[in-house]
């Protein structure tokens, strides 16, 4: 393909989102709890990110870590979080839910899509946990989602590139496929080429060193360094993609 590929950065904090913007990201997915696969960030985090970002802001709607099969209480939480995102002026939300048998939970997802109204909608990697990816994609297209974030059902987008290409062919322009999982500056261009995806999703992780001079040795794991997106890491991803555009 030709043209500039879109780079979305998975941002686990407002600081990550700002670093991603400075590094050349095209869009932010904001969430919390990176180590657990991501959950919905606080309203305060979303509000501060919206105030500081000039690029589109999508927010992950996921009430807990674990599987993607939700009960009525969890559905209520997601609907309220989507309403909050609309009130705060977000550009989109990232949703997904499955039935216990691995099919897309169409009734619940239809409620989530309706709640989002004019917002952009990405179906997240619940898709990769579905029983039948081609069938799940048809269900998601029917819901009116705009894109699917996927590794092609594999542990990484590199490994899942053949499936992503197959799904893109099946989609035939009806929905966008965004490749994500395990992407870095060394492989993102290859994944873009092999999968045929023109949207790529990466976290661009770097270690943020704590400024604490005093640390209680009994609290190791509570007082320590942490991970967030880095300006240099995002810039390297952007340059690698631009070389293939």
Q: What would you say this structure looks like, in words?
A:
The protein has 245 residues and is of the alpha/beta class. It has a single domain (6-244), classed as Alpha-Beta Barrel (TIM Barrel), CATH 3.20.20.380. The protein is built from eight helices and ten strands. The chain has an eight-stranded parallel beta barrel, surrounded by seven helices. Strand 5, helix 5 (133-143) and strand 6 form a beta-alpha-beta unit. The chain is globular, with a radius of gyration of 18 Å.
Q: Which characteristics define this entry?
A:
8-stranded parallel β-barrel; TIM Barrel; alpha/beta; 10 strands; 37% helix; two-stranded antiparallel sheet; 245 residues
